[in-house]
């Protein structure tokens, strides 16, 4: 899980840097900031799915073991 957190932190940091440049007047940085936001959205969606699958697997294992 640490790799997951590190990757997300890195993407957020990229967004932060590019957003600061954009609001400082660099229009090209706006495109990079939007790209980072898109990556964040995709990454979060995939991680949510993975967590839910793991949760369901644990629940099924626990229920199966109790039966």
Descriptive overview:
This protein has one domain. The protein is rod-shaped. It has 67 residues and is mostly helical. The chain has helices spanning 2-23, 27-66. The chain starts with a helix and ends with a helix. 93% of the residues lie in helices and 0% in strands. The model has no long low-confidence stretch (mean pLDDT 92). It is built from two helices and no strands.
What is the count of β-strands? 0
Q: Uncertain regions: pLDDT < 50 for 5+ in a row? A: none
What's the tally of helices?
Answer: 2
List the helices and strands in order: HH
Q: Indicate how many domains the architecture comprises.
A: 1
Gap between N and C termini = 30 Å
Mean pLDDT: 92
Strand content: under 5%
Q: Could you say which structural class the secondary elements and strand pairing correspond to?
A: mainly alpha
Radius of gyration: 18 Å
Helix content class: over 70%
């Amino acid at each position: 899980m640490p790799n997951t957190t590190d990757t997300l932190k890195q993407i957020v940091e990229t967004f932060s840097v590019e957003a600061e440049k954009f609001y400082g007047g660099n229009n090209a940085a706006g495109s990079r900031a939007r790209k980072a936001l898109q990556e964040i959205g995709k990454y979060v969606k995939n991680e949510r799915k993975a967590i839910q699958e793991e949760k369901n697997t644990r629940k099924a294992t626990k229920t199966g073991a109790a039966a």
